[in-house]
Amino acid sequence: MEKKSNSAEKILLNYYQKERKRQKSTLNLIASENYPSKKVLFYGGSLLMNKYAEGYPGSRYYQGCQYIDKIEELTIDLAKKLFKFEYANVQPHSGSQANQAVYLALLKPGDKILSLNLLAGGHLTHGAKVNFSGTFYQVHYYNLNPFTQKLDYEEISKIAQEVKPKLIVTGYSAYSLKIDFAKFRQIADRISAYLLADIAHTAGLVAADLFPNPINYADVITFTTHKTLRGPRGAVILAKKELGAKIDKAVFPGNQGGPNPAIIAAKAQCFLEALQPEFREYQKKVLKNAKAMADYFQKKGVKVISGGTETHLLLIDTKNSYNLTGKEAAEKLEKIGVICNKNMLPYDSEKPWITSGIRLGSPALTTRGLGEKEFKEIAQIIHNILQNPSDPKLKKASKSKVEILVKKFFQSQKH
Length: 415
Ligand SMILES: Cc1ncc(COP(=O)(O)O)c(C=O)c1O
Known about the structure:
Elements: H1 2-25, E1 27-28, H2 38-44, E2 55-56, E3 59-60, H3 66-83, E4 87-89, H4 95-106, E5 112-116, H5 132-136, E6 138-142, H6 153-163, E7 167-170, H7 181-190, E8 194-198, H8 203-207, E9 220-224, E10 235-239, H9 244-255, H10 261-274, H11 277-299, E11 313-317, H12 318-322, H13 326-335, E12 338-339, E13 341-343, E14 357-361, H14 363-367, H15 372-387, H16 392-409
Parallel strand pairs: 1-12, 5-6, 5-7, 7-8, 8-9
Antiparallel strand pairs: 2-3, 4-10, 9-10, 11-14, 13-14
Helix pairs in contact: 2-10, 3-10, 4-9, 6-7, 11-15, 15-16
Bound molecules: pyridoxal-5'-phosphate.
């Protein structure tokens, strides 16, 4: 029996080491991933996770929470300072649970939500049929303009007037341009709807003042801490003060049990790092690097959705540009060590498992130290391989170019 568990332990460790090696030997262009600091990892995996702390600082259902209270208070203060907002709940385990808590706080089952169609860059929790949001609420969609592939505020306003939703959702998983939150506020005000800004993807850019900030316009803001913000897996809800009590109740006991104090401490560490001037410099590079890729593709005549990027990500129409589905393109890239995800495109005719495009993001490799020159080189590697996916010589050459970049920038780093 013991022997068996020993060998299972070895197998587990072996898989961990293999994953570590994979992360250190490939170029990661997944827009929602990043590499947090050693300190974030320390707190996130620390003994703080041993503590049960249902409730909130000062009113817990368990004894022994005096230090956890202080940690959570500090994390809340740092979140409020970083985003200049009046209320924060730092307990959500994930972005999905944060959104779930917001709906629970502001809506009743059957109420109407207006959000961006999933095909055009929205998130599952914004009303997908297969998600709780599409099950419990009546979901209506706005779309991107079919010609410009940009948000069309007049059209959104028209739909909002017709539908009269109780909540409008803005903020996306795969939209590469800026968002005019003031216009969304006007649209919401005309029909007395709540406005939720889900800035899961752009939180790091917002914190660095490099992307429009919804603070003056949204009633509630949700964001994940593990994407551009470069913190632990988890999320935060910011809200107008008067909605705070409702949100707290919706998080606990509404849809979560005990918070994870280890991750809460790791969030504090992440916010401390995001308050440093170097973080802003990092985010500037994130933007420049994404743009370097988009510019390269556009110069080559490749279809970049919405005409380019003003964020950390871009979408490429692989079907029209290379005659490859998103699935085929992403798989071909993985074979040479470039990791990205297939992605639905606006008005996509393919199924979500196939898709017509890929999404490319710059945050992870920017953390690894790669700059505009390297991102351009990566775009070139991608372009060549997608143009000639069955050329064995090119495949070999591309693979070795990837290996050279990996070796130069991060393979030998301990972290
Ligand atoms: C816009 C948006 N909201 C919410 C989420 C959900 O976050 P999580 O995966 O932590 O549940 C994501 C994740 O990709 C997202 O892109």
